[in-house]
Amino acid sequence: MGVPEKTLITGEEILEYIPQRPPVVMVDTFYGIDERGCARSGLTVTADNLFVADGVLDECGIVEHIAQSAALRAGYMNRTMGRRVQLGYIGAVNDLKVHFLPPVSSRLVTQNMVEQTVMNVTLLSARTECDGKPVAECRMKIYLEE
């Protein structure tokens, strides 16, 4: 996957597309959605991140990053259609595989693909990489409030 060349949204502007607020913001870049519908987002792991312990991002931080990547995708879609950003909740995490815990200063890139949406529930698959190496993958069920 690697780091995409094109960046659509970064910095403080990210906050316009997600419901989370500091210090629990786990995405810092949105690269966009490709022609297949695959969204890509990123995060640089910093030492002051709430989910960093002993110099690495823990499993909870990886899952939260994936969930916020999904929220960023949904927020981007809503904003482009003139709608508000919705609050979302993780309904389930399935088939989670964590390959390694990325150290501080790592650049994570996560891709997520919607597999199915029924009413307010979205099932997606996600994969997170660091320097082209798999960090984690999972399937996630997200519930979005109306």
Automatic annotation (TrEMBL):
Source superkingdom: Bacteria
Gene3D superfamilies: Hotdog Thioesterase
Protein name as annotated: Hydroxymyristoyl-ACP dehydratase
